[in-house]
Amino acid sequence: MILVLKLVLAPCVIAAATIAGRRWGPGVSGWLLGFPVTSGPVSVLLYLQYGPLFASQSAAGTLAGQASVCLFCLTYSLAAKRWCWPVSAGLGILAFLLSTLVWTQFTVALLPTFVLVLMVILVVARLMPRQAAPSGIMVLPTWDLPARMAVATVFVASLSTFAGALGSQVSGLLSTLPIFGTVLGAFTHRAQGGAAAGQLLRGMVLGSGAFAVFFLVVGALLPSVAAVWTYVLATLAALLVNGFVLRSIRG
Questions:
Q1: Which among 113, 96, 117 has a CA at the least distance from the CA of 182?
Q2: Nearest Cα to 5, choosing from 156, 148, 219?
Q3: pLDDT of residue 36
Q4: Residue 138 near residue 191 (C-beta atoms within 8 A)
């Protein structure tokens, strides 16, 4: 059962975000990535493999990791104004790793981390560059979508496998590694330019509130509430928050 989830969850999520981006543009694709598209499946697998307490404790680390994701998005989008996708992605990942290294020096608590992440989201969203992406239909090679799905699957399966050795906090921090943001950002950058990649990453930042709420619910409820209800309530809360964000953006 766990193996099936590892092989199915990640590729389905990345396929949905990719198709949405092709249909409605990189901003919507990035907004969808604001949902816990890798960390959510990882959290479920951590619960199944290591129990509710481990998964609950890792939720605080995952929240902290989302602050690092926002720094990744900001760094990538600023770099994309001048440089090609390998340089931009490399600088973005470096910013994420340095931020994660700082977080490992502290023991994070759920509620204070949630408040801090919300502050980071607001600040980064204001600092993100706003550029008009070129219009037109993006023509991608046939291997594009399978490649994205394969990369995401390997990441989710690997992290959930080695989480026990890493510990709950480090597992949570690493579960936010922006693998989808890097893959989708790089592909979008290569195909449509830095402005389009910036749009996608700005959508990720704006959608991060839903991510934060999801793991606040998971961390608070999972030790005492049935896992099914915990993840259902967390998903509903994330949908509600991101629905509000999308309405505000369009309004």
A1: 96
A2: 156
A3: 79
A4: yes
131's CB contacts (< 8 A; 6+ apart) are 81, 194, 195, 198, 199
How confident is the model over 44-68, as pLDDT tens digits?
A: 888 888 899 999 989 999 999 999 9
| Inter-residue contact 172 to 59 (CB < 8 Å) | yes
Distance CA(196)–CA(132), nearest Å, equals: 7
Q: Is there a contact between 5 and 160 (Cβ–Cβ < 8 Å)?
A: no
Residue 102, pLDDT score: 93
* Measured CA distances, 51 to 48, 95, 128, 168, 227 (Å): 6, 32, 38, 11, 10
End-to-end, the C-alpha distance of the chain in Å comes to 43
pLDDT value of position 93: 94
Q: Which residue shows structure tokens 């209800």?
A: 229
Helices (H), 25-109: 26-32, 39-50, 52-80, 85-103
Rounded Cα distance between 179 and 17, Å, is 13
> Within the chain, which residues score under 70 in pLDDT?
1-11, 13-14, 16-34, 131-145, 148, 152, 155-157, 159-165, 246-251
Tokens linked to 15: 């396929």
Classify 108 as helix, strand or coil: coil
Q: Which amino acid is at 27?
A: G
pLDDT of amino acid 215: 95
DSSP 117-178: HHHHHHHHHHHS---PPPPSPPP--TTHHHHHHHHHHHHHHHHHHHHHHH-HHHHHHHHT--
